[in-house]
Amino acid sequence: MIASSEPSIQGPLPAFFYFALSGENSITLDPFNQPVQFLKPYPIRVFSWTLPGHGEGLKDTDAMKVWYESWASGKDPIEPFIETSLKNIDQLIKEGKVDPEKMAVGGLSRGGYAACRLASVESRLKHIVGFAPLVSPARLDEFQGKVFQPLEDYIDQLANKSLWFSIGNLDTRVNTDSVYQFVRKLTDRNFEKGNRSPQVNLTIKPSIGYKGHGTAPETFKEGVLWLAQQFNLQERS
């Protein structure tokens, strides 16, 4: 099921595919939906669908255990999500709701990880936004140091895309250092590929919330403003 927040404008518009929890909660549940709220003044459609480990009958707090158990059994929990995502994006383009030349993807925490994995296989997703993004699942308590597919494995596919990440300066949930190291390596890879001005942005703010893993409203707004700039969007009167 595709959840959405859409302005009352006809025809294809820029699109932001945003992931945090289930599709519906990503769009409607505060504070997870704050990027959606800040985008409402702009001519852009926001879509979401459910992340692995979320949805009916599942506890959001158990999602990372579900991911770990899937990887530990030899199955990548993100692959079905990517398959569904590609079908949904093609469907929305076919329905005339999305401008295929102006699509971005992003997410909060685990949603940031899923967004990057999706962008790594979909060349039309040229812009990525991550709020306190998970970049290395091994850093989570649920994984006990066992390594499964960090975003570093996808740096080649993510190079030459524009990226904006924010992270708390003492985030002990997804680990501040791991986010910085990923951004540093992505920047270096861009430079190696001949990009002398890599569009890779990292904002580090004072940590808030449990394990320093919260995101303040002003940080959500900063990410939204950056995204609006990528599409040259102006607020509607």
Oligomeric nature of the chains: single chain
Whole-number mean pLDDT? 96
Beta strand count = 7
Q: What Rg, in angstroms, do the CA atoms define?
A: 17 Å
The CA-CA distance between the termini, in Å, is 31 Å
Specify the biggest β-sheet. Answer: 7 strands, mixed
Detail the poorly predicted runs: none
Going across the biggest sheet, name each strand in turn: 1-3-2-4-5-6-7
Helix content: 25-40%
Give the SSE string.
Answer: EEHHEHHEHEHEHEH
The proportion of residues in beta strands is: 15-25%
Number of alpha- plus pi-helical segments: 8
Structural class given helices, strands, pairing? alpha/beta
What characteristic shape results from the CA principal axes?
globular
Task: Note down, in words, how this protein is organized.
- It is a single chain.
- This protein is of the alpha/beta class and 237 residues long.
- Helix content is 35%, strand content 19%.
- The chain is built from 8 helices and 7 strands, in the order ββααβααβαβαβαβα.
- It has helices spanning 23-28, 34-39, 63-72, 78-94, 110-119, 155-158, 176-192, 217-230, and strands at residues 3-5, 13-19, 45-48, 98-108, 125-131, 162-168, 200-205.
- Strands 1-3-2-4-5-6-7 form a 7-stranded mixed β-sheet, with helices on both faces.
- Strand 6 (162-168), helix 7 and strand 7 (200-205) form a beta-alpha-beta unit.
- The longest helix has 17 residues, at 78-94.
Offer a concise description of the structure:
With 237 residues, the chain is an alpha/beta fold.
